[in-house]
Amino acid sequence: MSIDFDIESYDGAESRFIGFLKCGNQKCNEFVAVAGKAISERQFYVSGPEPFTEEEDVYYPIYINPPLHIIEVRKEFPENIRKDLIDSFGLYWIDFDSCGNRIRTIIELLLNIYKIPRKIKNKKNKFGPISLHKD
Questions:
Q1: Which residues face 9 on adjacent strands?
Q2: For residue 109, what is the enclosing H or E element?
């Protein structure tokens, strides 16, 4: 991917950036808009006869559009599930909790599609809800 950023510094140590990424895949060649924060990090090296410092900007994306596909979006999934999954990719950069909630909703939709029961017998031989976070 090629990268070309305009950086606007506010306090010297942390700045904001906006830019475009271009997919290097010849089949794609799509542009992606990205915005976020850049933090200037300084490394101090004590090797050789003279110590030296090196400064580098580290970029943290907060907004990416269209969202990068974090996992494969299968064509056989229904359109509403594919759309929700792609929407969750955009939330990943902004709010992990919202991203997780969107994925939980997708899992519930898949449980309905594949008619997987929502309740199971527990240790007391009573029916209770299936938890997604337990083995």
A1: 15
A2: helix 96-113
